[in-house]
Q: What sequence folds into this?
């Protein structure tokens, strides 16, 4: 029951956040045109000048009457100004109103693994953020943790390729609206959404696995598991926790924090 409610709340929050983000002004740097992008260029009231062209490896597109124009590394607005200036300089159009759109983006792919509904590889157009990718993957599963990692390959010292891990707090992003957590993805990124559950056994009414949330205590864990049975004792609690490749079991209090993969056991009262 709790897991279904948690999934419903997370899905609703994700949808609300996506709607909110769509109404915010774009604060990130505008997309820079790249080789192999396809541009649609038009001039108002001059349909004969309309053209679609693929950016060459040299970073240029061919435009009627003007020849090759630099496009790679520029925004669409910069290309609009460049085309307009050349049309005026060539006395082709006196006051041109030029529009440039990216008709097709260069193939860029990212991978999402772990606790999402539809893991796999996705082709991303233009700027794509972490929220966008999670939406493409149909959201997170019931067991998803709030700590997500983005793995990115970069060029390190001496030109060697290195892998960088970018941690993202999904709770801060979705529930606190911290947009700094909404990482803009790059070609080749891998996003991993880990499983984050703990287990409650012993003298509780609903033993089983539950999702770890921030601030989850043993007291909260017992509540999620339906509370103690008549035989259960709050004085006889223990937690089994992984320590590297080993597991350690020790006594616990109701205020102890529960971690991922912890096994909380409530023993029977001796009285």
A:
């Amino acid at each position: 029951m709790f897991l279904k409610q948690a999934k419903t709340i997370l899905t609703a929050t994700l949808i609300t956040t996506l709607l909110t983000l769509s109404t915010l002004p774009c604060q990130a740097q505008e997309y820079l045109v790249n080789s192999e992008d396809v541009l649609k260029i038009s001039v108002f009231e001059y349909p004969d000048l309309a053209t679609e062209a693929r950016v060459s490896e040299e970073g240029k597109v061919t435009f009627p009457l003007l020849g090759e124009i630099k496009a790679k590394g520029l925004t669409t607005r910069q290309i609009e100004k460049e085309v307009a200036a050349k049309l005026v300089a060539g006395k082709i159009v006196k006051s041109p109103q030029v529009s440039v759109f990216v008709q097709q983006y260069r193939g860029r792919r990212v991978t999402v693994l772990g606790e999402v509904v539809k893991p796999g590889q996705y082709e991303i157009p233009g700027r794509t953020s972490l929220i966008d990718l999670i939406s493409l993957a149909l959201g997170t599963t019931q067991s998803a943790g709030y700590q997500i990692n983005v793995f990115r390959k970069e060029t390190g010292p001496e030109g060697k390729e290195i892998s960088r891990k970018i941690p993202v707090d999904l709770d801060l992003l979705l529930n606190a609206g911290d947009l700094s957590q909404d990482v803009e993805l790059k070609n080749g990124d891998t996003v991993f959404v880990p499983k984050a559950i703990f287990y409650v056994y012993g003298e509780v009414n609903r033993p089983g696995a539950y999702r770890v949330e921030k601030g989850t205590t043993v007291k909260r864990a017992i509540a999620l598991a339906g509370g103690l049975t008549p035989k259960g004792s709050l004085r006889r609690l223990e937690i089994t926790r992984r320590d590297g490749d080993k597991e350690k079991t020790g006594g616990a209090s109701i205020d102890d924090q529960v971690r991922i993969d912890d096994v909380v056991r409530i023993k029977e009262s001796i009285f």
Remarks:
- Residues 115 and 151 are 16 Å apart (CA to CA).
- The first strand starts at residue 38 and ends at 43.
